[in-house]
Amino acid sequence: AIKDAGLTQIDHLILTHYHGDHFGGMAEIAKQIPIKEFIDHGPNLQPGVGADFERDVYPKLYAKAKHTVAKPGDKIQLTGVNWTIVAANSEVTAPLQGANQPNPACANFIPIDNNIEDPASVASYITFGRFRTAHLGDLTRNIEFKLMCPNTLLPPVDVFLGLHHGQGSSNSPVMVHALRPRVAIM
After folding, report:
1. Which of 122, 125, 150, 151 is nearest to 138 (CA)?
2. Average pLDDT over residues 27-54
3. Are 85 and 124 a contacting pair, CB within 8 Å?
4. Among positive and negative, which fits the CA dihedral 7, 10, 16, 19?
5. What pTM was estimated for this model as a whole?
6. Residues with Cβ within 8 Å of residue 124, at least 6 apart in sequence
7. Contact 165, 136 (CB under 8 A)
8. For the segment 74-111, what is each residue's pLDDT rounded down to a tens digit?
9. Euclidean distance between the first and final Cα of the chain, in Å?
10. What is the widest separation between alpha-carbon atoms in the chain?
């Protein structure tokens, strides 16, 4: 697919968090095409999970590239695209333009316990012309609440890349109802 698209490098690669289903093919793709920047939330927070990758593989991948620890509000430079990091390391952004609306779903919010790595996911809000999308990694309900309650920090989207593979620990009404996506992808 990379060859068919005529790409010669990856400018920005985001590691949302240190779970194998999110970093699993990174070493292999790095052998196929240069990656100019690796972006993550900082050190792994969940002992044992992803530790070998973080210690033995990942530093070798970003050693010859730029390594950025994402912070909410950071912008990723991409021509014609407004790409904003809206959450990282369990912290969230200030309201984006078009957000800051009261969220009635917050009154019925039910928090949920989860591991400590998923909530640290690097999460993005992306606009391209009038098109808007959110890719929020595996953020969990509790971080969704921080992003969307009592007022929304994210405006509505056209396409929502569903959180955490569609699991119930994510994708709460406070997030999904406030984003009002036309299409959701799991």
Report:
1. 122
2. 94
3. yes
4. positive
5. 0.95
6. 14, 76, 83, 84, 85, 86, 134, 135, 136
7. no
8. 999 999 999 999 999 999 999 999 999 999 999 999 99
9. 21
10. 49
